[in-house]
Amino acid sequence: MTETTTMQTQLPEKISTASIDDMMKLTGQAADMPTQSKGLARLSINHASEDEEGNALPRGHFSLTTDDGIFYGEKATIRPFMRTYSYSVWDNEEGQFSSMTVQAPSFNSEFYDTEGGLKCGRLDANELESLPKDSPEWVLQKSVKCNQNIYGVVTLEDAKDKKGKAVEKKEIPCVWYAKGANFVPTSDCLKSLHKQKQPMWLTTIGLSSVRKKKGGNIYFQAELTPRGQIADWTEGDDKLMHEFMETVKGYNESIMKKHEEARGDKENFDTVVNE
User: Which residues of 111-145 are buried (b: 16+ CB within 10 A; e: fewer)?
Assistant: First the structure.
């Protein structure tokens, strides 16, 4: 089939032959922000009372989003293989991230972002404290969230699907974005393991949640409790660790592509303005 190239996009000769999803991507209607691998499940704490279909959901339970659906468990057990850090800004009006950074294992890293800058514009602690608390810049800075991205395998205890049907979800490879109220508890737990010289990838950690209230806002915070140690590192573990690393590598490559595109746009704009 003959194709016409425009704006680095391959358009079919007959538009009618393209799917709606493809056309949304080609015309810029679809969000073109980097995402994690579709095959990797996502662990989180559920805050919704019901889903879009009206099914009642258990608030404060852990949810596991997979290619097969979303599953829930009051408690969970996770075995972390690796942790990375990143920054992001969520746009409520658009319902998507407006800026995201690469993931890195240390805060000493350069966190390149999709806007062509660093750390989504996040200032360091001293600079942040110097800002007036009622200034627009302060509000903007508070919208930049720091994330801990935990890659590992999770088991949901007494897992159920959205209809309440019992299912089995054991040792599922996943990523957990431990941010907000979950950032410090997660950091403290892994820091404690580090002090004990206990590798997190050879440790199982129990997960539960506790209800919190701040003003009129009710939320749930994770509680992490080390449970046991894994005796041996297997070939399967080795393969899974490599898969997690490849996932992060692919994600970072997509972020860097956006970063370079944004820098190019800014440089072109500066050139035009200065001419």
Answer: bbbbbbbebbbbbeeeeeeebeeeeeeeeebebbb
Tell me the β-bridge partners of 70.
Answer: 65
Taking the C-alpha atoms of residue 184 and residue 266, their distance in angstroms, rounded to an integer, is 36
What pLDDT, in 10s, does the model give residues 246-268? 999 999 999 999 999 999 866 65
Identify the CA nearest to 57 among candidates 44, 48, 65. Answer: 48
Q: Which residue has the tokens 């922000």?
A: 33
Phi, psi of 110 (to 5 degrees): -90, 115
Q: Per the structure block, which two tokens stand in for 17?
A: 């032959």
Residues in CB range of 87: below 8 A, 6 or more apart: 99, 100, 101, 111, 113, 119, 120, 122, 144, 145, 146, 147
The model's pLDDT over 190-226, given as tens digits with 9 standing for 90+, comes to: 999 999 999 999 999 999 999 999 888 999 999 999 9
Whole-model pTM: value is 0.81
Q: In the 8-state DSSP scheme, what is residue 110?
A: -
